[in-house]
Write a structure and sequence with these properties.
The complex is a heterodimer of chains A (390) and B (615). Chain A has 390 residues and is an alpha+beta fold. Chain A has nine helices and twelve strands. Chain B is mainly α and 615 residues long. Classes of the chains: A alpha+beta (390), B mainly alpha (615). Chains A and B meet through helix 1, helix 2, helix 3 and strand 8 of A and helix 3, helix 7, helix 8, helix 9 and helix 10 of B.
């Protein structure tokens, strides 16, 4: 009686577990999965895991199998005679010490190889990107191109990126599962990570080390772009220089390259320069009227004024080129074009942008951006102003 | 010479050693009573930690949920972990150390009975100190591991971190005092003939645990002192802006933290090694290997700590060293599992409730151990760390391991502790609900973790695919919670029954089953002489019987026991006061004078303790 009930219960448990397992086993359902590597570092990690999982499954089936077999084979009743009083078996014990040691050795060899592979220094042709973790957003700098951006990292497919990382405050961890494992970032030392994206697309990423109240809302996006598209993006970003003073063209000469700006006012861009400039070349752009990159909708002018008056300019820079370091808030040069705002918290719609500006504390309590007493129409104007910054 | 056997009806209550009333419990120095105090207190904290977990699971059952605020969630996950580790599992183990070690080694009490009481009171006060933070809306919120520099004054200005930092310090004192006590007890108070290699496995594993406690807790004590100096007195041990290094905290914490997890599991290993032989009706397979693997695990456990730090970029040499040492620890652990199965093999298995939990332990611990091996590989671990894959691993070893083991011990030794048998049918129901609930809650976490869900996050957005499994996990958590309700009902029902459990209901192998259930205050009327391992089975076999006659109750005249004492409690209050006054000092609510007064109270309590008549 008891045996049947035990058998049935075990069957039910096993079926439940199997169902759950099968349900869960399709990584395609999970945009942030580690199990579908799209970059070389992640591929190394995944391959290593595969090897280990195979061994683990073998051991699991064998050992649990023996356990379950023993449960049924040796079940007894209280009145049964005393079984043979074995105290041990040295040979058996040696065998079952040596076999796990051998399995572990089989796992250790590829592990050590992978450790050294993933700690190798990337080659000279790698693209260096500086990463700074902040409570609760991510800053990205491209020293080669003199660019700064935030919360959305663009990388070229097929070229290794070499990340040099730090933190502005507490420990965070950089983690884009499809491309690489995590690397913590610290305020007092530089940590490094590299990966080569292999497949174009937009990938979700998230901070991987508890960093305070809004750790859960410190997500970001990685846009892996084909080489042409990436070059175009860099070139475009390099037009996002400092904004001109309101009412007139800035002092300074024309850029050395690229199409001459039409008039002295920021406007919808006439077309990006078709060359990507290096830092030295790009720095001359700071003399030219900066572009915003996007169309200037209604409310733009009011938004521009409010951006100063409300104090936004104190924490946020609107220039991608030569942006000042140590800003408290994310760089907003191309915020209008990003998929998300508030570090992956909200989709970047006009509605959400205005809502965020009005009430950041209500959406992401504890964030360093205070509620500044922005009214609803003001928030829409500011949103329009920011939307133009693409 | 001085004890005489009494008829059951002749024995007055006092002769049973049962002083009644609150004062007798407050001044008790009897290891059995202290064990029960530990157990009851720990169980209440366990329920509290469980409710904290259920609240977390409600919040995570839905994406973008607003059931809990970010702040509240962070407090709850911090307190859930801290409570389960320091206020539940460790003191539940302490319940068994207290109750069983003297009985299993044939002693009348521990080496330092008043220090024993002191440990309990300090533990209780530490647990209260930690939890009083809720009343100040300042519960710890920095994670149970408290990484610097989030814990610096700059990034955690409130009292939250301080409640954790000082509370843990109080608990550390309790643990260290108890560790000294049990270490000396096991070394010095074993009955004649009880050589080390004849000790019950529970005593062996407890012995190793005390050594781990003695070596690991001083490290966290130092780390917490350094943190306190940073937070209260402006030093920069862990603060980068002052030249300090947050990584120093991680090293110190994990040099403590990794041995800590062996502290959490070894007592359960010991319990399983007691339960399996009794319910397989044959001795433990490979006693010597079990002892040495335990020693080896403890020793190696001090050499793996940086496997918690693979993401910090220590470099390939350090990564390799810690990866290999972590893999190495899997070997003695595997040996234990095989020896347990070897104990069952060829036996006559009796599936009473303690045995069910013991078998459940083996099955669950295998899973936890295997996921642990997966974490040992740095490149793969960089994907796993800080995700739910890790949460799955440690719940399989700490719940599937420690809690299942402790529960097995509870059902097994309940009759010895309380003189009553827990109900078998409710026990079996508890087991199946717990097994199913546990797996439904934690097995999916392996998947949701590898598929990208980080841990310590108060919510997750819709669209990353985490919803389904999280909902299932939440349902599982409630099944798990319900299983403990069944246990509670069992406990309450059993409480109402008369005290009629026999001395040896399970045909046990060890000395505690040779004395009445519950034991009289002095444990053994005559200190036994031990001739071998599994001493009681030897005795029964010599006498050709499967059960000894019910041991007689004796008057206890002439047996010398330590007097009850009030001073351990006073000293414990002194300890707690020191930390309360430090908190006041650190937040500029008072000067150093209250701290001095608290230290004086502590010294006063200890002074009176030291000079009270030995009795």
């Amino acid at each position: 009686m008891l045996r049947t009930a035990a058998w049935r219960s075990r069957l039910v448990t096993a079926l439940c577990l199997l169902t759950v397992g099968l349900l869960a086993c399709s990584p395609e359902h999970y945009p942030q999965t580690t199990l579908l590597p799209r970059g070389d570092f992640a591929r190394i990690a995944d391959h290593l895991l595969d090897t280990t999982v195979k061994w683990a499954l073998l051991v699991f089936v064998l050992v649990e199998g023996v356990l379950i077999y023993a449960i049924f084979r040796f079940r007894g009743k209280p009145e049964d005679p005393e079984p043979h009083q074995t105290h041990g078996n040295t040979t058996v014990e040696i065998v079952w010490t040596v076999i796990p040691a051998l399995i572990l050795a089989a796992i250790a060899v590829p592990t050590v190889r992978a450790i050294f592979q993933t700690n190798a220094t990337p080659g000279k042709d790698a693209l260096t990107i500086e990463v700074v973790g902040h409570q609760w957003w991510w800053e990205f700098r491209y020293p080669e191109y003199n660019l700064t951006t935030a919360n959305e990292l663009h990388v070229p497919v097929g070229r290794t990126v070499s990340l040099r990382m730090g933190s502005a405050d507490v420990i965070h961890s950089f983690w884009v599962p499809q491309f690489a494992g995590k690397r913590d970032v610290f305020a007092n030392r530089e940590t490094r990570l590299w990966f080569k994206a292999e497949v174009e697309g937009e990938y979700p990423a998230q901070c991987g080390e508890f960093c305070g109240i809004q750790h859960a809302r410190m997500a970001y996006r990685i846009k892996a772009q084909g080489p042409e598209e990436f070059r175009a993006w860099v070139a475009h970003m390099q037009t996002l220089g400092p904004p001109p003073p309101p009412g007139g063209p800035p002092p300074g000469g024309k850029p050395h390259r690229g199409p001459p700006p039409k008039g002295g006012r920021p406007r919808a861009q006439a077309g990006p320069p078709d060359q990507v400039m290096t830092a030295t070349q790009g720095s001359t752009l700071q003399q030219s009227p900066g572009g915003t990159g996007g169309p200037q909708g209604p409310g733009y002018a009011d938004g521009e004024k409010l951006f100063m008056m409300k104090g936004c300019v104190g924490c946020h820079s609107l220039q991608a080129v030569n942006a000042p370091k140590g800003m408290v808030g994310p760089n907003l040069a191309n915020v209008g074009a990003r998929s998300y705002i508030a570090a992956g918290t909200l989709k970047n719609t006009d509605e959400n942008l205005a809502l965020w500006i009005r009430n950041p504390q209500g959406i992401k309590k504890g964030v360093l951006m205070p509620n500044l007493g922005v009214s609803e129409p003001e928030s829409r104007a500011l949103a329009a102003y920011l939307r133009a910054h693409q | 010479m001085a004890t005489r056997v009494l008829d059951q009806h002749q024995v007055p209550a006092a002769a049973h050693g049962e002083h009644t009333g609150l004062w007798s419990w407050i001044t008790t120095v009897d290891h059995k009573r202290i064990g029960i105090l530990y157990g009851a207190t720990a169980f209440l904290f366990f329920l509290m930690g469980g409710i904290e977990a259920l609240l977390l699971r409600i919040q995570l059952g839905t994406p973008d949920n607003t059931f809990l605020s970010a702040e509240r969630y962070n407090e709850l996950f911090t307190m859930h972990g801290t409570t389960m580790i320091f206020l539940a599992i460790m003191p539940l183990s302490a319940m068994f150390f207290n109750f069983l070690i003297p009985l299993q080694i044939g002693a009348r009490d521990v080496a330092f009975p008043r220090l024993n009481a002191f440990s309990y009171w300090v533990f209780l006060l530490g647990g209260l100190f930690l939890n009083v933070s809720w009343l100040f809306n300042a519960a710890p919120d920095q994670g149970w591991f408290g990484y610097a520099n989030l814990t610096s004054r700059q990034y955690s200005p409130g009292m939250n971190v301080d409640f954790w930092m000082l509370g843990l310090q109080i608990l550390g004192i309790a643990s260290l005092a108890a560790a000294v006590n049990f270490f000396v007890t096991i070394v010095n108070l074993r009955a004649p003939g009880m050589k080390l290699m004849r000790m019950p496995m529970f005593v062996w594993m407890s012995f190793i645990t005390q050594v781990l406690l003695l070596m690991a807790f001083p490290v966290i004590t130092v780390a917490l002192i350094l943190l306190m100096f940073d937070r209260f007195f402006g030093t920069h041990f862990f603060v980068p802006s002052g030249g300090g290094d947050p990584i120093l905290w991680q090293h110190l914490f994990w040099i403590f933290g990794h041995p800590e997890v062996y502290i959490l599991i070894l007592p359960a290993f010991g319990i399983i090694s007691e339960v399996l032989p009794v319910f397989s009706r044959k001795p433990l397979f490979g006693y010597a290997a079990m002892v040495f693997s335990g020693v080896f695990i403890a020793f190696l456990g001090f050499g793996v700590w940086s496997h918690h730090m693979f993401a910090t970029g220590m470099g390939p040499i350090a990564d390799t060293f810690f990866a290999l040492s972590t893999m190495l620890i899997a070997i003695p652990t595997g040996v234990k599992i095989f020896n347990w199965i070897g104990t069952m093999w060829g036996g006559s298995l009796q599936f009473r409730t303690p045995m069910l939990f013991a078998i459940g332990f083996i099955a669950m611990f295998i899973i936890g151990g295997l996921s642990g091996v997966m974490h040992s590989e740095p490149p793969a671990d960089l994907q796993q760390t800080d995700t739910y894959f890790i949460v799955a691993h440690f719940h399989y070893v700490m719940f599937g391991g420690s809690i299942f083991g402790l529960t097995a011990g509870a059902y097994y030794w309940w009759p010895k502790m309380f003189g009553r048998m827990l109900n078998e049918r409710l026990g079996k129901l508890h087991f199946w609900l717990m097994l199913i609930g546990f797996n439904v809650t934690f097995f999916p976490m392996h998947f949701v973790g590898l598929n990208g869900m980080p841990r310590r996050t108060y919510t997750y957005p819709a669209g990353l695919g985490f919803e389904t499994l999280n909902r299932i996990e939440t349902v599982g958590a409630f099944i798990l919670g319900f299983s403990f309700l069944i246990f509670l009902i069992n406990v309450i029902q059993t409480w109402r029954k008369p005290r009629n459990a026999p001395a040896d209901p399970w045909n046990g192998a060890t000395l505690e089953w040779s004395i009445p259930s519950p034991p009289q205050e002095w444990n053994f009327a005559q200190i036994p002489v031990v001739h071998g391992r599994d001493a009681l089975w030897e005795t029964k076999r010599e006498q050709g019987r499967t059960a000894l006659p019910e041991p007689a109750l004796v008057s206890g005249a002439g047996i010398h026991l330590p007097n009850p004492s009030f001073w351990p409690l006073v000293s414990a209050v002194g300890v707690a006061s020191v930390f309360v006054t430090l908190m006041l000092l650190g937040h500029d609510k008072a000067g150093p004078l209250p701290v001095v007064a608290a230290v004086a109270l502590l010294f006063f309590g200890v002074y009176r303790w030291a000079f009270e008549p030995a009795g």
